[in-house]
Amino acid sequence: DFYVVLLSPCELDTTMKMILQVPTWAHRVIYIQGSALKDADLIRARVTEAEACFILAARNYADRSAADEHTILRSWAIRDFAPNVPQYVQIYRPENKIHVVFAEHVVCEDEFKYAMLANNCLCPGTSTLVTLLLHTSRGQEGQSSDESWHRLYGKCSGNEIYHIKLSDSRFFGEYEGKSFTYASFHSHR
């Protein structure tokens, strides 16, 4: 079993407090108000015992370069305090990746955004697919629209993806060993 420790200088908002009271999360997620720049707070968060440390870019900055600077400082502080803990760092600007080369993985939001746009040119709909996979929807968006495609898109945006072996599927098990084109054509007739 793993525990997730959230360390943030901000006080929890009401929504997050409610989420952390759900029994699924209540015993696995611990919130600590503090700063990654203070050793005392890193000790309370037991960073030296962590399997990994995820450092997310702050969303409340108007200036993305300033947000990256703050993220880099936090990453450096954690590296100095717990050098053996793998870091996964999110930044905005690609030119700032050089400052966190020691991190296991660096996700640059701007690079991701532009790569997504480029992939969308090569394969139209890629950005829509990724957006629908990353955002939760109840499938009710666009239902009051006059456009039929709005209603269909909104309805389908509420679909969910489940992990299951093809051979175990009651609906798609018969397509095992067939090409994707064959399976998609015959399953949606």
Overview of the molecule:
- This protein is α/β, with parallel strands linked by helices and 189 residues long.
- The protein has a domain at 1-108: Rossmann fold (3-Layer(aba) Sandwich), CATH 3.40.50.720.
- Helix content is 40%, strand content 12%.
- The protein has eight helices and five strands; from the N terminus they run E-H-H-E-H-E-H-E-E-H-H-H-H.
- The protein has helices spanning 14-21, 23-26, 39-44, 64-81, 109-122, 126-134, 148-156, 180-187, and strands at residues 4-8, 29-33, 53-55, 87-91, 105-108.
- The strands form two sheets. The chain has a three-stranded parallel beta sheet. A two-stranded parallel sheet has the order 1-2.
- Strand 3, helix 4 (64-81) and strand 4 form a beta-alpha-beta unit.
- The radius of gyration is 22 Å and the shape is globular.
- The termini are far apart.
- The model has no long low-confidence stretch (mean pLDDT 90).
